[in-house]
Amino acid sequence: MRKSWLLWALCCLLLAGCSGKENDNPAGAGNTAEGQELLVAQELSQGKTLTVKAVEAMHFEEPEEGYAENHTCYRIIGTLIYMLRVESGGTDNAARLCMQVYDVEEKELTQQVITPQVQGHEGCRLYSADLTADLELSLKMWEGEDRYFLVKTDLEGNTLEVLESFPGEGYPWNLDFWEDTKSFWLPDGRIILSRYDVEGQRSTLTRLDQEEGESPLGELPGDFVNSLLADGENAFYYLGGNSLVRWDMEKNTREELFMMYENGVEPGAEASGLIRNQQGEILLCRLQRGKGTLYVLTEEELPQKEQIRLVSLEGQAGIYYIQRRAAGFKQNGGEIPISLELENRQEYQEDYRDRIMAEMVAGTGPDILYVNQDDMVLLQEKGALCDLSDMIPQETKDVLIPGVLELGTVDGQLVGLVLSVEFRTMATPFGVWEGDGWNLEELMGVLESREDWECPFHSNGVWVDGYSMLHNLVFMGDSSFLDLEQGSCRFDSPEFVRLLELCKKYGSTGTFEERLEGALDLDECLELMREGEVAVQTMFAGGLKGYSNYRQRMGEYGHIVGFPVEEGSGSYVESAARGYLVVNARTAYKEEIGKFFSLLLNYDNQFQIDEGSVRMDVIQDSVYYDPWMECYRLLRSSDTENRVVTDLTLKPDGTTYLEEYLDFVESCRPAPYIPLQIRSFMYEETLPFFGGSKGAVETAEAIQSRVRLYLEERK
After folding, report:
1. pLDDT tens digits for 123-150?
2. Residue 561 to residue 558: CA distance in whole angstroms
3. Which of 50, 89, 168, 190 is the most exposed place for a label (fewest CB within 10 A)?
4. How far apart are CA 189 and CA 30, in angstroms?
5. What is the pTM of this model?
């Protein structure tokens, strides 16, 4: 069933890179409910001995005219790929099963259509279908309301058995999307079940005998088993997260043989499978929307192929959209494949980052990098990045959010590309401040005007701690405490000491959990805004939905004033994942990388970014009126087939905040760049101050000393 496979695929992406987690039990320890010993897999080692030898494509037939797809299930048994598509339509609007079978060896596709008729259940409809280990069709039939029953047929559609109700626990086929069990039928006749425990982040494998029940095999901490292939009696290949692993159960060793994102394998498939062909090679099969891609894997040393090397120094954070576009680059106009590399083990990421940065400074390194803002600035200072201006078409630049290109501009040169954004701003009640904006002196005056603020500084109903207040007021505004261009700072000034004391006085001292537990609900926020008991309300969110919720919390009693600045807008746009794509100045593939950037920024693909699109036209077109639901909806993300929509918070008159949001987006400036070192100095020196063991003047002087020394070293 489509929803089932999508959930499994989602779990794979969320769990990718978790396989290095320590076991809770030593190997061989742990017991099943029946008291039988359960083998707990050892730590995962990296071999990466397999590479892609060839890529084969196959396509299933679309539904014939008059019929539409309802549910689809894919099964891989031996060297046969089964697609079981439940269709509705036709003159009698009856549901039917279209079963298509692709023979990997013969490269032949056959099709059969089955319309089940069940005596005594006239009027029932086919709901979903699956294929059991005995090559029986498992048909889930619907009789109305919540009544379902099971029909088993052979592959010709002849009824073998009818169960008056659909089996519950213990029947591993034709499961609904929330089930945690996957079943695998191995060519030697074994039926293996894998159950994933989301909380414990581990899969448990058992062997199923349909007469005697289940017997334990082993447990895989940190891994979700998406596909399984036997390698003899006591070893398995399995697809866990984004890697192919061989588990030798006799020696209890696990070796990672193949990483999908490093080899151009597109993520997000509905179903995956592992097949061994007549030559003994493993075929990794990815099935999506009626199409199949078969990657032939080999241990042979292949000739070095030309490719564009893309490296993420941020691990997997924020990389999914780029990963998908890179994997499909050659199918969408690219001439040279893009290979993505990253280090997803936290303990090794710093060493990996240092090595890649050294390569870049030495004049080698990857063609494209995904980096944070600090590394982008550092690479530009070293002269390692090229100007991206000519790689982005003018017609694309014309529809981008104002400030997006400026976010990636360092010393007047466009060197970084931002693909998704979010926004920050501030609001206050009209009764507290009526001006359209304010500076820091005016905001401090507001805070000092009263001693009894009920909620002086909060974000989405959560009372903000003292350091967060300080960070927002110093680093998000254009205060006079720091001037990076001039290389000067004034953290030892009386104004900064005064600000420190205000943040300590009005910032929450509770833990984050305590503050979250005491968060204000919508009505409480509105009441405090109405009564003028809120001094500052901050917003840190992406997209129209977050903005609309923010406006709802203000009601008609408050207005957006932005962070304290001397002039202009105090509202900011920034990279949603804090990531930037940059290009090696010495790359030989500028033209191809330009094609890739156009693919990342084009209209259709930007609809696949959950609300954070950098295109104004995508934001404009994401809101539509649903006549069936009689309400406005927000298209949060969409690709060829899958759409994620949500309701929108509306104005009291029933209209959306789209027009106001577009004006707000137009007004936002790029968030100021503050080097990580300066932020670290601020945090380290204010920690004892907010803890009560250090005075404000002493703290201010310590910050001034460290920041001034840093600025002098930069010169």
Report:
1. 888 999 999 888 999 999 998 888 899 9
2. 9
3. 168
4. 27
5. 0.71
